[in-house]
Fold this protein.
Amino acid sequence: MKKYVVERNLPGAENLSAIELQNLAQTFCHVAFEFGESYVWLQSFITQDKIYCIVLAESEEIIREHARRGKIPVNIISEMKTVISPATYDLQVN
């Protein structure tokens, strides 16, 4: 499966209550369960007006279908090609 960043525009996302976030997480999980191993939600980052989700999926179409079934916005889907971190800084390059 491929790893994706899914950008969801959700005005006021930063103001979602703990209960609203819990409900959103439950929706993400319940709908993902319907897809079995072809869609796995890993985590999400909440910003002012957006939610960025990290998911494993077989295709962008499955991500869009997950959003449709869950009535969750999906605006941009980007496949992750490489990940870097502070650990990347210290790699030995031959």
Helices lie at 18-34, 60-70, 86-89. The first helix runs from residue 18 to 34. The chain has a mean pLDDT of 93.
